Amino acid sequence: MEYGREAAIGAVCGLRAFMGPALTAGAANGRKLNLRKTPLAWMATDNTAMWMVVLAAGELLADKLPFAPSRMKTPSLAMRFLSGATCALAISNGRKRHEKIMGAIVGGTAAVAAAFTGYQFRRHTKMPALARALIEDSVAVGVGNAVITHVCS
To answer: How far apart are CA 89 and CA 101, in angstroms?
Structure first.
């Protein structure tokens, strides 16, 4: 079984913890991603979709601030793992139970790997800090949109 899209949405969550949930909840709320009668049906509610967008926008802004907390701290990595696992589980809806579980594991693991990759990119790339952050934002938004578009088509 292939888990590329689960890994990709997990990677999005590793770069921006709330971007994956915002895109996933938006698709579910817009009825493009069917989560009805699943444990993740709450993602399709208006309130969830709205708050995920607010949190994602806040994260995009807060990430540019010099006092933003490190994504390498355990609570941040745990949040990114859970975010990636939840989004991967949501987009693997329709698969067999063991495939959904494996998709969630892949998504969570990809989130942690992408968090480390993004951290190293920001640390070692020789360009202004804002430019590095905006590149990372662009990758997260672009990949996230591509995954959701592919899943919902």
So the answer is: 7
- The sign of the torsion formed by the CA atoms of 61, 65, 67, 72 equals positive
CB atoms within 10 A of CB 30: 11
The first and second tokens of residue 124, run together, are: 């070692």
Where are the alpha helices (H) located in the chain, listed in sequence order? 4-15, 19-29, 46-62, 74-91, 97-124, 129-151
**Residue owning tokens 């590095």:** 132
Say how far apart CA 150 and CA 153 lie, in whole Å.
Answer: 5
Residue 130's closest CA among 46, 61, 74? Answer: 61
- pTM for the whole structure: 0.94
**pLDDT tens per residue across span 81-113:** 999 999 999 999 889 999 999 999 999 999 999
